[in-house]
Specification:
alpha/beta, Glyco_trans_9, Lipopolysaccharide heptosyltransferase family protein, Rossmann fold, about 240 residues, glycosyltransferase activity
């Protein structure tokens, strides 16, 4: 058993211990992938050192022709050019530190107003779609220009293919932004300090939220939107 050092594991014949404090001290800039490899090396260091060069560490999610066709059809049907696409995800089941849906719609409005050559795509899914469309229509009254809704069919690879076409992903700490990190796409994360520790993004660009969406004041929301706009400029 490969495990962190604990009194019970240090003296167990079944355990090989990894001294995490040692890793942190001498490998401060190493990521979690390196730490896992360090664990694996404890099994058989000689074999590990011999074969490590032969392993393929490409962990990027791969899409297929079906996903490409789905996204191509969506873009073509809406006459969207994928030059300056922004994927804005307002949905998160587990994130408390985020914005209310109406505030994300305000953000969309500000983005297309400030950046004339940008198109925004909001990915939706069956569970939230009906309520979202109602709120979307109530907010905008008329169909807005350059803001589009992609209703996914629960195939996560469609979202991956969509992310690959974008310049930047804007999202709270949830699956969409984690996919963007896997695909090494730029993102702006609306994260709490805890989210940053546990869910670091590819380009490490965050708008720090110290309050839950219910606690945010009108001024707080305005500041958050302005900060996102400033950050977004560098990716366009």
């Amino acid at each position: 058993m490969i495990t962190r050092n604990r009194p019970i594991s240090i003296f167990s014949l079944k355990c090989k211990c990894v001294f995490v404090s040692f890793i942190k001290r001498f490998y401060k800039n190493r990521n979690d992938e390196f730490k896992m490899l360090y664990y694996a090396r404890k099994i058989n260091p000689k074999l590990f050192d011999k074969e490590i060069k032969n392993l393929n560490f490409d962990i990027k999610i791969k899409t297929n022709i079906y996903n490409k066709n789905i996204i191509n059809n969506f873009l073509d049907q809406n006459n969207i050019k994928d030059k300056n696409l922004i994927l804005l995800n307002p949905f998160s089941i587990s994130a408390f530190y985020t914005l209310k849906l109406v505030d994300y719609l305000k953000l969309c409005q500000e983005i297309v107003s400030k950046f004339s050559d940008v198109c925004i795509i909001i990915p939706s899914y069956e569970t939230v779609h009906k309520d979202f469309i109602q709120e979307f229509n109530m907010f905008f009254k008329q169909k807005p220009q350059k803001i589009y809704i992609f209703k996914n069919d629960d195939n996560i690879l469609n979202i991956c293919e969509l992310i690959k076409r974008t310049k930047c992903v804007i999202s709270p700490s949830t699956g969409v932004i984690h996919l963007a990190s896997n695909l090494e796409k730029s993102s702006i994360g609306l994260f709490s300090e805890k989210d940053i520790i546990f869910w670091e993004t590819f380009n490490k660009d965050y708008v720090l939220l110290n309050k839950t969406k219910e606690e945010l004041s009108t001024y707080d929301i305005l500041e958050i939107i302005n900060e996102i706009l400033l950050k977004l400029k560098r990716y366009l």
